[in-house]
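Section 3.1: Structural characterization of target chains.
Under the original work plan, the team committed to producing a structural model for every single-chain target entering the pipeline before any wet-lab resources were allocated. The record below documents one such target. The sequence was received from the expression subgroup and is listed exactly as submitted; it comprises 463 residues.
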Amino acid sequence: MAQTLKNLPQIQSLLTMPAIAALVAQYSHAEIVEALRKIIQDLRSTLLADATVPLPDFDSAEFAAQIAVAVEARRAPSLVPVINATGIIIHTNLARARLAPQALQAITTTAQSPSNLELDLATGKRGSRHSHVEKLICDLTGAEAAVVVNNCAAAVLLSLMATAAGRNVVASRGELIEIGGSFRLPDVIAQSGATLREVGATNKTRVGDYADAIDGDTAVLLKSHTSNFKIIGFTSAPDRRDLAKLARDRDVILMEDLGSGVLIDLAPYGLGDEPVVADILKSGVDLVMFSGDKLLGGPQAGIIAGRRDIVASLKAHPLMRAVRIDKLSLAALEATLRLYRPPFDPITDVPVLAMVAQSADVVERRAYALAHALKELGMQNVSVAQSISYVGAGSLPQQDLMSFAVAVQSPDLTAEALMAQLRKSTPPVIARIEREHVMLDVRTVSDWDVAILTAAFKRILTQ
């Protein structure tokens, strides 16, 4: 074994070989050295396990090609498109909302040339990036003013820092939520410099609980929409209008963190538990914070809408510079918001809402089309099954959507192994496993994805 290990060449000697020296000129010295080190290390590990394994011809075109493949793999983008066949419409791990074509075009146009991001074209003086979407948000929500930051957590943090730093924030114990990534609302409140006053019980909080907690140091009554869980049974929570009256009477601010937030009523599509932003503001809530990349269907953004004087204080706060929205997200958000106004129809023009609203018949037809295509490849264990889809991303946790999935079993691969192969496809396919079947839920699959899914299975069958 020792003699075989000694036959492994030094990196420097490999770099002098003509085929490898040509790769250095094609790529870079650092990249080729890194690839060689990895290949030699793998060969060393192999020989330690089995000393009889022959070494490659290090001066051959085949070995040089192996190095080139390794370098190209390192150069490949890490962030890639995938096929979402999970049935979860707004999948946090899969980048949440799919953007509308108009939003994509807005991103491209804004990225390709200078823009009036912070220039007032009428006066030629410095303008505000917030002006590009503020009127749209106000028109759609009935708010007096609005401002946008880079995500909803930043919206909550900024709102509390600007209004309650050094003072008290009153919140119900039943609404002290934790969102994805272990970010907890009490921690955000503490980071803002405010002090949390918990009121009520986990399952019941009354207006009187809020009233009893208000004192001279109280700045904000904070409601949080429990969009990622439900408490059922012996429960109660105060009406927003009653809380709004209490806030006015006691001269404090009533805020609500919606998390998701919708601009239109989704009850006709079976999703009636998500409050409409305009209705919340109409009830008397002073400030509402919600996401741009969930049920609104746009890019990542935190939207703050409400009273003019409060929004003005947020715009002037030093933290605003750190959490402001970037120009590409702003362009995509403006384009998405315009889809909520005539002549557009958000239910058909915003992909997330179109996915929510599509009928079970349409989904079923897509499932049978995919199943037929897979059977045409010669796959035997393929069937269509009724399924359940979810909105996802912490929205509407107990409301599901009827869907259909294609159930697939491989005679040669376990469900886990088949899933691993699908993730290696180009683009990768992300599905779920149920009872040893790979389930491809097609509510989250577009019609043009059917051919891509078919090609992925064809590759697996022929390898």
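The chain has three domains: 2-75, 83-91+354-462, 101-349.
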